[in-house]
C-alpha cells in the first residue's frame, strides 16, 4: 500500500521510514523542504501532488519544544493545529483515512488513575493547547481518522529525555530528576509499528477514533532515568526531586497515565514494555544494552 507521510527526520517519522518496506508500505514523504507547516497554506499543494493512489495519510510532525511554545504559541498552533486541520479536511474530501499523533499533555494531570479516551482535556501548557486544538480540528473535519495519543517518546534519533540522560550520565556523578510526574515512556519504534498497523486496517475499512498508546509499566521521570543509567552502563546516581524544584516555563501534568485498553480491543495493539525498547535504542546508539 502507499502512504503519504508528513515528517522525515522526527523520532516517529524516522521509525516509520525504517519499518515501511518490511510492512509492505511505499512511503511518499512530505518534509519541511516541501511544506513548512508554520505556513499551513503549504499543505494543500504538497498533498495535491501525492494524494492520487494513496491509501492513507499519516502526520508525524509537530512543534514539540514544550517550553519554547510558551513564547511562540501562534507558530506552534500553525504546526500543531492549523496544518493538521488542512490535512484532515483534504483527506476527508479525498475519502482517505488520516492518522494523527497527539499527547498526554492535552490533560491537566490531576488524580492518580489512568485516563481513557473519553476523559476531558484541560491542557496546562501552550504546547498542550495547540495539540488539543489539532485533535479537535481533525475530528471536526468529518473524515475517517485516528488520533493516537502517546507520551514520553524516546528513540535513537532527535532530541529526547533518554538521550539527554545518557549524555548527562556520562558527565555527572549525580543528577536530580522529578519523581512526582508519572507516565509511560514510549519507544518511537512501537508508535511507528502501531500507526502502520492502524493505517492498513483503516485502509481496509476498520473504523478509527481516538486511542491511547503508551509504554508500560508507568513510572516517574526519575524511575525512567534510573533505568536509562543502569541499562546504559552509566554510574550516575539519580536523586528524586518534586516538580516544584525543577521550574520550567511550561507546566507539565503530574499524572500522565493513559488507559490503553481501547487500542488493544480495536486493533490488537498491546502496550509495549519500554525497557525492551530502551535496550533496542541503546543498541541503535552503538551502546551495550
Ligand atoms: N516527543 C515526545 O515526547 C512526544 C511526542 N508526541 C507527538 O508525537 C508526534 C511525533 O513526535 P516526535 O517524533 O517526537 O517529534 P520530533 O520533535 O522528533 O519531530 C518533529 C517533526 O515535525 C517536523 N516539523 C516541526 N516543525 C515543522 C514545520 N514547521 N514544518 C514541517 N515540519 C515540521 C520536524 O521536521 P524537521 O526535522 O525538519 O524539524 C520533525 O520531522 C507529534 O505529534 C508529537 O506531538 C506525543 C507525546 C510525546
Ligand atoms: C533534563 C532533566 C529534566 N528533568 C525533568 C523536567 C521535566 O519535568 C521532565 C521531562 O523533561 P523533558 O523536558 O525532557 O520532557 P518534555 O519535553 O516535557 O517531554 C514531553 O514532550 C512532549 C513533546 C510530549 O508530548 C510529552 O509526552 C513529553 O514527552 O524531566 C529533571 O527533573 N532533571 C533533568 O536533569
Automatic annotation (TrEMBL):
<comment type="function">
    <text>Catalyzes the reduction of dTDP-6-deoxy-L-lyxo-4-hexulose to yield dTDP-L-rhamnose.</text>
</comment>
<dbReference type="InterPro" id="IPR029903">
    <property type="entry name" value="RmlD-like-bd"/>
</dbReference>
<dbReference type="Pfam" id="PF04321">
    <property type="entry name" value="RmlD_sub_bind"/>
</dbReference>
<feature type="domain" description="RmlD-like substrate binding">
    <location>
        <begin position="1"/>
        <end position="285"/>
    </location>
</feature>
<dbReference type="GO" id="GO:0019305">
    <property type="term" value="P:dTDP-rhamnose biosynthetic process"/>
</dbReference>
<dbReference type="InterPro" id="IPR036291">
    <property type="entry name" value="NAD(P)-bd_dom_sf"/>
</dbReference>
<comment type="pathway">
    <text>Carbohydrate biosynthesis; dTDP-L-rhamnose biosynthesis.</text>
</comment>
<protein>
    <recommendedName>
        <fullName>dTDP-4-dehydrorhamnose reductase</fullName>
        <ecNumber>1.1.1.133</ecNumber>
    </recommendedName>
</protein>
<keyword id="KW-0521">NADP</keyword>
<dbReference type="InterPro" id="IPR005913">
    <property type="entry name" value="dTDP_dehydrorham_reduct"/>
</dbReference>
<dbReference type="GO" id="GO:0008831">
    <property type="term" value="F:dTDP-4-dehydrorhamnose reductase activity"/>
</dbReference>
<comment type="similarity">
    <text>Belongs to the dTDP-4-dehydrorhamnose reductase family.</text>
</comment>
<keyword id="KW-0560">Oxidoreductase</keyword>
Amino acid at each position: 500500500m502507499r502512504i503519504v507521510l508528513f515528517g522525515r527526520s522526527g523520532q516517529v517519522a524516522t521509525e516509520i521510514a525504517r519499518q515501511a518496506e518490511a510492512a509492505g508500505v511505499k512511503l511518499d514523504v512530505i518534509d519541511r523542504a516541501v511544506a513548512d507547516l508554520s505556513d499551513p497554506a503549504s499543505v494543500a499543494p504538497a498533498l495535491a501532488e501525492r494524494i492520487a493512489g494513496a491509501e492513507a495519510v499519516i502526520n508525524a510532525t509537530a512543534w514539540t519544544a514544550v517550553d519554547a511554545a510558551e513564547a511562540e504559541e501562534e507558530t506552534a498552533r500553525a504546526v500543531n493545529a492549523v496544518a493538521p486541520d488542512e490535512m484532515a479536511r483534504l483527506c476527508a474530501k479525498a475519502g482517505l483515512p488520516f492518522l494523527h499523533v497527539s499527547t498526554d499533555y492535552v490533560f491537566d494531570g490531576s488524580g492518580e488513575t489512568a485516563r481513557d479516551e473519553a476523559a476531558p482535556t484541560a491542557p496546562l501548557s501552550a504546547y498542550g493547547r495547540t495539540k488539543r486544538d489539532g485533535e479537535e480540528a481533525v475530528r471536526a473535519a468529518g473524515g475517517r481518522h485516528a488520533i493516537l495519543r502517546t507520551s514520553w517518546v524516546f528513540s535513537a534519533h532527535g532530541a529526547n529525555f533518554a538521550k539527554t540522560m545518557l549524555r548527562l550520565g556520562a558527565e555527572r556523578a549525580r543528577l536530580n530528576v522529578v519523581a512526582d510526574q508519572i507516565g509511560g515512556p514510549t519507544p518511537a519504534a512501537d508508535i511507528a509499528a502501531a500507526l502502520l498497523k492502524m493505517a492498513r486496517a483503516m485502509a481496509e475499512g476498520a473504523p478509527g477514533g481516538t486511542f491511547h498508546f503508551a509504554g508500560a509499566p508507568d513510572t516517574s521521570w526519575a524511575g525512567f532515568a534510573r533505568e536509562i543509567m543502569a541499562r546504559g552502563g552509566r554510574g550516575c546516581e539519580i536523586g528524586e526531586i518534586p516538580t516544584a524544584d525543577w521550574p520550567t516555563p511550561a507546566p507539565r501534568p503530574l499524572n500522565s497515565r493513559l488507559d490503553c485498553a481501547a487500542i488493544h480491543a480495536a486493533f490488537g495493539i498491546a502496550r509495549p514494555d519500554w525497557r525492551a525498547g530502551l535496550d533496542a535504542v541503546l543498541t541503535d546508539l552503538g551502546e551495550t544494552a
